[in-house]
Write a structure and sequence with these properties.
mainly alpha; 2 strands; flat
């Protein structure tokens, strides 16, 4: 039941995390909040036994690289460190859409936060609660079956 519930909630949480990321420039939210939401989804999926945490170093390196490049890129144009460039595009059905380099920086922050959550899960040797219950149940079954089998002169 837990696995089914987590599978049902995952797409909703991903959409909410994307909204928090994109709305974070004008309202509360942004890369860190979206990263925490995605990290929570990963933790729930790990506990439910749907996935195992992997590639923490890749997420951390990618996020750090993106954030670092976005931070120092303005220096190439003679602007200040972390200065933002904003562009606007006409998108069908949505109209005029603005996005800045801060959005790319936030994507880097999301990757770093997800990488930290993955690293914590790996470091804590997180496994699913389902596997842990099966392992304990299997041990009990093995212990009881060993007790029932008579040994060499015990008949």
């Amino acid at each position: 039941i837990v696995s089914l519930a987590v599978r049902a909630v995952t797409p909703i949480a991903l959409v909410v995390a994307a909204y928090v990321l994109l709305a974070g420039h004008n309202q509360p939210g942004g890369g860190f909040a979206a990263g925490l939401m995605l990290g929570a989804v990963i933790v729930l999926r790990t506990i439910a036994g749907i996935q195992q945490p992997r590639h923490a170093a890749t997420w951390l390196a990618t996020g750090g690289t993106i954030a670092g490049l976005v931070a120092i890129a303005p220096l190439l144009w003679g602007d200040a460190l972390l200065d933002q460039r904003v562009g606007a595009w006409e998108v069908p059905l949505l109209g005029k859409v603005k996005a800045g380099s801060a959005l790319l920086f936030d994507l880097g922050v999301v990757a770093i936060v997800v990488g930290v959550v993955l690293a914590l899960l790996v470091g804590l040797d997180a496994t699913s609660l389902v596997d842990r219950d099966r392992t304990v149940g299997d041990r009990r079954h093995q212990d009881s079956s060993q007790r029932q089998q008579p040994r060499g002169g015990e008949l």
